[in-house]
From TrEMBL:
The keyword Acyltransferase applies. It comes from the Bacteria. Pfam families: Acyltransferase. Residues 68-183 form the Phospholipid/glycerol acyltransferase domain. Belongs to the 1-acyl-sn-glycerol-3-phosphate acyltransferase family. Its EC number is 2.3.1.51. This is 1-acyl-sn-glycerol-3-phosphate acyltransferase. InterPro entries: AGP_acyltrans, Plipid/glycerol_acylTrfase.
């Protein structure tokens, strides 16, 4: 019963947040800080409705004084509410072009300045990647990427795709890993206490002086750091 009530409340919240976010986007279209504000519109009420306890330790991400590429693990659709709680100022994300057609949310996502990529068209996808490099270099705007490329509720990270790392190296900006504890399989939405989630950002990984030839080493290093951190977060929750 509690689960059904929560899902009803979440449906209403999703529509209301979409309307408010769309109005914000219309008032100041493509402002790079729209993403953070819209993320909070979705996240803060949702965390209360779902009664999720979230602890965030993201000082290394918030301390960044220059644009960066933020990489995080992607577990479920609930990431919109979980990760939305910690999106920093002037940060946009990369999403599939098809997102634009989701009523309210898609138009909000586009007007928030996020980058939409047509993955079925290699030429357009490459052009979008070049655009993101210019954003990082000249617009003081960071980019949030899920390097696994898809949702993954398993304990082991999937292989990382190159795109985020290519952008960071091309723009010469640091990579900031953000790790979220494995929560997707442990949500208890039919209970009052919906679950506990930990988020932790790691020290920035510099890319200055690196070339595309360094990508395999860079990707392996970042994935290894994140895997160890996620395991540590899970252990902390298990011991609590």
């Amino acid at each position: 019963m509690l689960f059904l009530l929560r899902m009803l409340m979440m449906a209403v919240h999703f529509v209301l947040a979409g309307i408010l976010g769309l109005l914000l986007g219309i008032c100041r279209p493509f402002n790079p800080d729209n993403s953070r504000l819209c993320a909070r519109l979705y996240a803060l009420p949702a965390l209360c409705i779902l009664h999720l306890t979230l602890r965030a330790e993201v000082g290394s991400m918030l301390a960044q004084r220059q644009a960066c590429v933020i990489v995080a693990n992607h577990q479920s659709n609930y990431d919109l509410y979980v990760i939305g709680r910690v999106v920093p100022p002037r940060t946009v994300s990369i999403g599939k072009k098809s997102l634009k057609w989701i009523p309210l949310f898609g138009q909000l996502y586009w007007l928030a300045g996020n980058v939409l990529i047509d993955r079925g068209n290699a030429r357009r996808a490459k052009q979008a990647m070049l655009t993101t490099t210019e954003v990082l270099r000249h617009q003081d705007t960071s980019i949030w990427v899920f390097p696994e490329g898809t949702r993954n509720a398993g304990e082991e990270l999937l292989p990382f795709k190159k795109g985020a790392f290519q952008m960071a190296v091309a723009a010469g900006v640091p990579i900031v890993p953000v790790c979220v504890s494995n929560y997707a399989r442990h949500l208890r939405l039919n209970r009052w206490d919906g679950g506990k989630i930990l988020i932790r950002s790691l020290p920035a990984i510099p890319t200055a002086g690196l070339t595309q030839a360094d990508l395999p080493m860079l990707i392996a290093d970042c994935r290894s750091r994140m895997q160890r951190c996620i395991a540590a977060l899970d252990a902390e929750l298990a011991a609590a």
